[in-house]
Design brief:
The complex is a heterodimer of chains A (232) and B (321). With 232 residues, chain A is an alpha+beta fold. Chain A has three helices and twelve strands; from the N terminus they run ββαααββββββββββ. By secondary structure, chain B is α/β, with parallel strands linked by helices. In chain B, strands 7, 8, 9, 10, 11 and 12 form a six-stranded mixed β-sheet that branches. Classes of the chains: A alpha+beta (232), B alpha/beta (321). The interface between A and B is medium-sized, with 14 and 30 residues.
């Protein structure tokens, strides 16, 4: 990171009038101040990027560095008696303002993206009675609070369980019901079946669903839970 | 464009732009071909085998001694029966001459794999293990399983009565435990009629039925409609019958078998089968299974795949899993 400098540009700072006690910068000084602004902005955007997209430790570190950086710059400007110091401080504060606006927007986007991402609850999901026939019921239980999630998306692997007969997977379907979900079905069976179940508002702290075989007379189907995730 | 222009930054920008455009255009066309919709006929035309139906004559494996489905007497050259009629229908619709050859159940996959037969139309149940070796069309027939017994034998009236009896089935059929690959499925087949059943395998149902009549077995186990064919055949009709109250709920769908990788031909067969089901199936059944037709008016419900079944199984036929 390039340290900000209070050095006046060569040949600058002697021309132009004054306004309200502060001399207006000439063209050379403007270029120099522009460069200062860019350098400050670049440095702060790096910190903002780390703070927004890094992990918790990175965020804390970046925020600490940002505060230290801002304190150092404002402190040095306050202690300096040189007339350019105020202009340098303005360049710094301008850069800081832009960086903060960018940071707030980026944080908002990050929060929306994270909130929309599914939460994988496969390790906390269990399927019991996974071999289904016409009279059987399997039960899916997810021991995780859905929170604000409105959907449970599940993927099953299905296998024909009848030996010595024609496969009936393609002829069968599943029906999902229970107090935690809106009833759904029939969902046509395939070797890999993915379906999304709408969760009832306020469901928690776990979610259960009963699964029945539909159109599956004389069929026996083995289900294996491959994936379960909560979605908004 | 030369990338060694006098103004290096301008040249670099121009080169970068040109490279991006090239990548975007060239890459775009490449992606289109790479991501073309995967269909069964996606094998490039140079690699795709020629259609079976460009041949004048196709070798079709059928059963010689399966009453109702396909039989050939000593005096006759041609096969007759439900499946023989189906083969004729296919030949007329797809414009080929069928050379029919007898095949045993256990050889059906082999004759397709080694190329000696083009089609197998031989009470060929679609099963997962077979589907890994050959391709099947959508089904033209469905049946549960049952047992055939001697008319004078009173020892078997329910499924529970079969347990402990000597039962015959056929090698390579769905009653043969070796027709399945994993041990659990093999055990399930052995236990389908009961844990204590003494099951033996023969090469043909005709042999099983003859040994049943001779008293070597108490029952023959296979698909009900195959057993119905023997029970109505004049040679056996006064000696054997299908046990009415016994249904083994291993549902079978019969499809036409063909070598893997002939998806376009398989789909053409599906279209013709659909036509057959809609226009000829009922009449063919009534012609070749008159006793079943006389006994129940619900024969279509029992043995004809429904439109829904045909449609759903068509989606997973022809090698599409």
């Amino acid at each position: 990171m390039t340290a900000p400098t209070e050095r006046a540009p060569e040949g600058g700072g002697t021309s132009g009038g004054t306004r309200g006690g502060t001399r207006a910068p000439d063209a050379g000084e403007k270029t120099f101040l522009g460069q200062q602004f860019t350098l400050h902005l670049a440095a702060m955007l790096v910190l903002v990027a780390v703070a927004v997209w890094g992990g918790t430790a990175a965020t804390v570190t970046a925020a600490t560095l940002f505060i230290a950086y801002a304190s150092t710059m404002t402190g040095r400007a306050a202690r300096s008696e040189r007339p350019e110091a105020a202009q340098h401080l303005r360049a710094f504060l301008g850069a800081m303002f832009v960086a903060l606006v960018v940071g707030v927007v980026a944080w908002g986007i990050r929060s929306s993206v994270l909130a929309a991402q599914p939460v994988d609850v496969t390790p906390r999901a269990r399927l019991t009675g996974a071999t289904l026939d016409a009279d059987g019921t399997a039960r899916l239980t997810v021991k995780a609070d859905p929170g604000d999630s409105g959907e449970l998306r599940v993927t099953f692997a299905a296998r024909d369980g009848v030996a010595g007969g024609s496969p009936c997977l393609a002829l069968s379907s599943l029906r999902f019901q229970g107090t935690d979900i809106d009833a759904k079905g029939p969902v046509g069976l395939k070797r890999t079946l993915t379906t999304t179940l709408d969760l009832v508002d306020g469901t928690g702290p776990e979610v259960s669903a009963d699964i029945r075989l539909d159109d599956g007379d004389d069929c026996r189907v083995s289900l294996t839970l491959e994936k379960a995730e909560y979605r908004r | 464009m030369s990338c060694t222009a006098r103004r290096p930054r301008l040249a670099a920008a121009a080169c970068l732009l040109a490279f991006s455009l090239t990548a975007a255009c060239g890459g775009g066309s490449g992606d289109r071909s790479d991501h073309a919709e995967p269909t069964g006929d996606r094998v490039t035309k140079s690699e795709a085998p020629p259609s079976l139906f460009t041949e004048k004559t196709l070798n079709v494996a059928v059963k010689k001694g399966q009453p109702g489905f396909s039989t050939r007497s000593e005096e006759e050259d041609d096969f007759a029966g439900f499946e023989a009629q189906l083969v004729e229908f296919l030949a007329s619709k797809l414009d080929f001459k069928a050379a029919d050859w007898d095949v045993q159940s256990r050889d059906r996959e082999n004759v397709l794999r080694d190329g000696s037969m083009d089609l197998v139309v031989a009470t060929y149940s679609v099963t997962d293990p077979r589907d890994k070796e050959v391709d099947f069309t959508a089904p033209y027939f469905k049946t549960y399983q049952g047992v055939l017994i001697r008319k004078d034998y009173t020892g078997i009236k329910t499924l529970a009565d079969v347990d402990g009896k000597r039962v015959c089935s056929v090698r390579g059929s769905t009653g043969d435990p070796d027709s399945e690959q994993d041990d659990k499925a093999k055990r399930a087949i052995r236990a389908a009629l009961g844990q204590e059943v003494v099951a033996e395998l023969r090469n043909s149902y005709k042999t099983c039925v003859n040994e049943l009549i001779n008293g070597n077995f108490e029952a023959v186990w296979t698909d009900k409609i195959i057993l119905e064919g023997f029970a109505q055949d004049p040679r056996y009709a006064d000696k054997v019958e299908v046990a009415r109250d016994i249904t083994v709920k291993n549902r079978q769908f019969y499809g036409i078998g063909l070598r893997e990788g002939r998806r376009a031909d398989c789909r053409r067969l599906n279209d013709v089968l659909e036509d057959f089901l809609q226009t000829r199936w009922s009449l063919a059944f009534q012609t070749y299974f008159p006793k079943v037709t006389a006994r129940t008016s619900a024969f279509e419900q029992d043995y004809k795949p429904t439109d829904s079944e045909f449609r759903k199984l068509k989606q997973t036929s022809c090698g599409a899993k």
